[in-house]
Amino acid sequence: MAHSGSIVLTPLAERLGRGAPLDAMAVAAVMSMPHVVRNFEPGQYLLREGDRPQFCTFVLSGFTFRHKFVGDGGRQIVSIHIPGDFIDLQNVLLDESDHNIQALTVAAVAQIDIDVVVDLAFAHPSLGRALWRESLIEASIFREWVANIGRRDARSRTAHLLCELAMRREAAGLGARATFELPMTQEQLGDALGLTAVHINRTLKTLHDEGLIARSKRSVSVADWGKLRDAADFTSGYLHLRGSANLNA
Amino acid sequence: MAHSGSIVLTPLAERLGRGAPLDAMAVAAVMSMPHVVRNFEPGQYLLREGDRPQFCTFVLSGFTFRHKFVGDGGRQIVSIHIPGDFIDLQNVLLDESDHNIQALTVAAVAQIDIDVVVDLAFAHPSLGRALWRESLIEASIFREWVANIGRRDARSRTAHLLCELAMRREAAGLGARATFELPMTQEQLGDALGLTAVHINRTLKTLHDEGLIARSKRSVSVADWGKLRDAADFTSGYLHLRGSANLNA
DNA sequence: CGAATCGTTGATTCAACTCAACGCGAGTGG
DNA sequence: CCACTCGCGTTGAGTTGAATCAACGATTCG
Question: DSSP letter at B175?
Answer without folding.
Answer: -
